[in-house]
Amino acid sequence: MINAEIEQEIIQPPLPPGPLKWVKENLFSSIFNTVTTIVLIPVVFFLLFSVISWVLFSADWRAVTQFPLLYIVGQYPRDQILRVGVILSSISIFLGISWGRWGGLLRSISIAAGLIFIVTALLPVQHPQLDQGMRLYLGSNTILILIGYFIGRLKAIKGSFIAIGWLLIPIFGVVLLTGIENSELIPKVPTTLWGGLLVTFLLAAGGILLSFPLGVALAFGRRSDLPVLSGFSTIFIEVIRGVPLVTILFMFSIILALFLPVESRIDRLVRALMAVTFFSAAYSAENVRGGLQAVPLGQIEAAKALGMSNLKTTILIVLPQALRAVLPAIAGQFISLFKDTTLVVIIGINDFLGIGRSIINSDPEFVQLRMEVYLFIALIYWIFSYLMSLASRRLESSMGIGNNM
Amino acid sequence: MPHPFYKWKQVMTNNQPLISSKANIPFYRDERVLKIFAQILSVVLVAGILIWAIINFFKAADARNMTLTFGFLKESAGFPISNPPIDYAPVMSFSRAFLVGLVNTLLVSGLGIIFATIFGTLIALARLSSNWLLSRIALVFIEFHRNIPLLVLLFIWYFVVFGMAPQVKESLKWPGPIFVNKRGIYIAWPRLTETGGIFMILVAIGFLVSFIVFIMLRKRRKITGKDTYYLPASLGLLIIFFLFGLLLSGGTPFQMDIPYFEGNNFRGGMRLTPEFAGMFLSLSLYTAAFIAEVVRGGIQAVDKGQIEAARAVGLSQIQVLSFVIMPQALRIIIPPMISQYLNLTKNSSLALAIGFQEVFAVGKIAINQAGRAVPVFALIMLTYLSLSLLTSFILNIYNRRIQFVIR
């Protein structure tokens, strides 16, 4: 009896609408919609057609294709380029390991990266910078990703090892790129020669890694019941949030030197990194503070009742819940930090955008090709920002945060 | 029967309490002492760094010919500013130059805020449209602008779009008439005639009177409950004042100032420099994408039941939007909107990269002049800080008014 009732209630899910029905519902559901669609279709077709025909036929991509290495590493000495290669390879292998361990979006990124490496290695064009060695190196990166994948599948590899590895890569990278004074193997390379995507990524990764702990500390400082501590933190946060990043960059690149001993000199890139870090830390602090406010007081009381110390309560109970609550905001902050690194162009550092601009200005012929160069730069920034926002959305949904989108 | 704890209580009161505040906790574990110590330590640390920095500054100040005074504000600036919005010449004082920069900043961010709000809201509505094609176009717009750096967008608009505009002689002509060439955009612009002043004064009075009438009649309706027709009454008053002004000014308060070609340049009309137009367009389009997401989130956050209930009561589509959705959505929209406006204002400092001379760019020129770096820099920081604080103060008052009244 009951079984029969239940069986009756199981209804077939509605079939997905057929293409005709879909068109009717989504494009021609009312008179207004119909008019809109009829007006928009030719406009869209015209735009798509002109964009595609421009990209394929009229555009001249010489200013982009002629100097791939310049875009990637700037003026970094070409005989030392292998150092960048070592870093890229270690990123490849860790990407592979992470793919093996976690899958998901990392799988798509790894496969895409592997395909890009192998396709570039086999590109049937003559190019002075794509010689035999370079092709071999690029191809080996695909293999490294695959090797990493199989390492990542091993049970012995813990997630925390991989995370620590990712944290160590930038530190290792900076040491390797800077080199050691009077060394035969890795001589010192002044940062004035660094450039391109290398600098953009270094500033972004360094900014994220350094600003986040600082931001958490500032958030706790602002919520502290010690008036002096919370006062200092509040002033720091509000002043930095009240002024544009360009101001902070100038403060570190020009004003800071006036307040330091005459003989001291801080590297240009380090000053830019400090500015980006402090700027981002103030914003992260406000995000984290929002998360801290969202943790119910009962959680802290329960932890105290269990006899946990203040430090343990903070690290094991409060922070995980607080950070989880504001993950979307933090991810958004990191994306905007990545985009904001472009501003270092204004203080004369040749990041990716800066290299593009100097290539344009290097040759009167390329001045006419600036459209191609700037659109190429926009595309690269777009891809990386979009990947970051995609990753944050995946992470959110896997952690069960947010219900929209 | 006494309480079982009775005996224990007696022990407590007769003997020493189990835990005493006077118990011998060593001072280095006493929380109160530690707290005071931590505060003193942080004050000493911060003050120490500041004093050290200032000593360093004064040690080298003479050699670098540095000052900390603001006396130079009265000295003549000595540098030119292209296309100043208010009267300016290099012989004028530095404070005047700074004011020019401030007006430029306020102009580009004020107009940018207005345009970004309108355009962003339209994009949000398009994104929420039931028309798939329209919604996708809005999505492409939003995703494009949100994921590229503003500086790249600015370079694209300034160097690519305006940089590749034709020479003056081959200007593009759009209906309006609007002329576009390398030197900027020339737009036909209504200018006041001789009698236009009377018209403007009357219209201004009309706005004031009808606003007062609007408030008073609406208040009376709230008290008495009778319809006072406040909207038609105030609108009618405004129209009467408008017509009266038109009559007094002889029918022509404005004259279209149409740009025309003379010699080898355009004259008349309103000229937007490529710097201003590039800055304005990139700032407002970039911010519009963010505002669109804010507005969309606000509208989607309104409970679906509210809309269904309103439809069930018999409200029309427009009534639902203006009386049910918008008042509730605005409460969610306003706070993030405020921070977008502040972002736009602060982002206007990127104009430095293309040579549009707003506060920061003017300040930068002065920094490069000998010895003024620190005071000029303090001035710039103070300007932006007070702009931020002022904006958030005004909008917070509005925000407080619009929030739910909690008993």
Describe the protein's architecture and organization.
Chain A folds into two domains: 77-189, no CATH class; 193-405, Orthogonal Bundle (MetI-like fold), CATH 1.10.3720. Chain A is 75% helix and 0% strand. Chain A is built from 19 helices and no strands. In chain A, α10 (196-223) runs antiparallel to α17 and α11 packs across α13 (268-294). Chain B has a domain at 94-160 and 273-402: MetI-like (MetI-like fold). In chain B, α3 (94-127) runs antiparallel to α11 (359-368). The radius of gyration of chain B is 31 Å and the shape is globular. Chain B is α+β, with helices and mostly antiparallel strands and 407 residues long. At the A-B interface, α3, α11, α12, α16 and α19 of A face α2, α4, α5, α11 and α12 of B.
Overall pLDDT of chain B: 83
Q: Radius of gyration of chain B, rounded?
A: 31 Å
Q: What name goes with the CATH superfamily of the largest domain in chain A? A: MetI-like
Percentage of residues in DSSP E strands of chain B: 5-15%
Q: What's the count of strands of chain A?
A: 0
User: How many structural domains does the protein architecture of chain A include?
Assistant: 2
CATH class of the domain at 94-160 and 273-402 in chain B: Mainly Alpha
Q: The biggest beta sheet of chain A, please?
A: none
Oligomer: heterodimer
| Portion in helices of chain A | over 70%
Output the structural class of chain A.
Answer: mainly alpha
Write down the overall geometry of chain A. globular
CATH architecture classification of the largest domain in chain A: Orthogonal Bundle
